[in-house]
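Why PROP1-like PPR domain-containing protein? Reviewers of the renewal asked for a concrete example.
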Amino acid sequence: MALQTTVRQSLRRAPRCLSPVYAFVGGNSELGFQSSHLKERFARFQFYCNSVVSANYEKRNYAKDLNQYTDVLYNLNNANRPFLLRDVYDDMILDGIQPHSDTFVPLLVGCMKGSRLQDAFYFYDEMKCMGYIPDDLSFNCLVATCGRCRQQRRAFQVVEEMKDFGMRPKLKTLTALLGACGYAGLPKEAAGVVQRITESGFTLNKYCYAALIGAEKNQQTKRGDPFEKIMEILKQARSWSSLDMFGGARTPSDIIDEIDEYVYGLPTVDFVRGRPNVVDRKLTVYHAALCACADLKSTAALRSVVEMLRQDGYQPDIFCVAQILRCHVACGEYGVAMKALNGYLNSGRPARTELFSVLIVEAMKGFTREGMEMAKNLLQELLNRGLPVVNKVHSELLELASQEPRGDYSVANLLFDLMQKRQVSLPKRIVELYYRGLQRRQVPEGDPRLAQVTKFLGRRASPRFSGGQRQIGAA
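Here is what the prediction returned.
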């Protein structure tokens, strides 16, 4: 009795919220109503908290189920944001959502497009840990990713790992392996892959010949004239000049999607940008040959390739025209390039932004006075025609123009003014390059460009915005 009395007295002095806890210990039946009342209030409070938390969760979360997460992955690939795929996958795992085998398709495709080798093999290991068997598309993406990252040995290992799953490499997989050898510039390894293709009962197609030309072009230790071998490969491709290789009506082999562009390692990947109708797939071998002429700066080989193209009865498409003009610019023949460009524009054929951007980039290489003047004229012609400029292309042009060591900095200033007019967002790295270029030219402090760039960099350097992702042009 003395103990119960002591407990009752302590309960009277205790906080009201603790009374239900001590009710059973004290044996006080009068607290039963209070206990049920507090339980009801606690239930209401818990329901309110759950509703608030769920509302905040709905506001912050971007996907609820597997289908929504898969849509997010495809949207990231379309927006060219492959560096966010790993974060989305981690969020999906933390939400307790089990990925399906089809979920790894956009993950591997995005890693291939973004050349993210480590993430690609992370997702590949996740597939195997979950018991999923990779399909042909998964292996094609892995091999192509290895090729784009110059990891041709790992590409051969991936093809050998297909045997562990009881799979036989198909022609597309071997073509991707051949493209990996082309990226790395390994003609001997490429010849071994060609032998493997023929032993498997397949026939070389135009994508195989394009990869062989790329292997000769990109080899590090060039022995003799590389165009002798390139011309030999081109003649071999022309000897197969059947309906499948060059001529005839439009076949299913001419219609490839953006994924096949990366799998085959075609030189038109960055030029097409997901628009398959921009270039003519029948000229795939000529695309690789003309690109080699421009990269190796050989106008003699260029004339030979163009003559072969005309003998086959074809008209150069816009990518061929871009490589022909780029070759003249790379060799310092600026007048010839401008004359040919004006002839193309006056012919009534469509003018695209990619044509101007390729020539502007090539003209700015070396930062010669004639080249920078040509780049300025091309940029003004681009603006006069009202052609749209993609933000990525705009950033690349300004990044290159900001590195001009001498000169009046007119190209960089013109690009910066265009960025401000169109409100194009630029990362801090490119803005800093442009700022250093202004400092090298001792621009007065009252200059509006210098004031705007200084204000932006000062805002990014402050503690409040030190962890943000704000970009100039978006303010």
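Residues 31-60 form the longest helix (30 residues). This is the kind of structural detail the renewal will allow us to pursue systematically.
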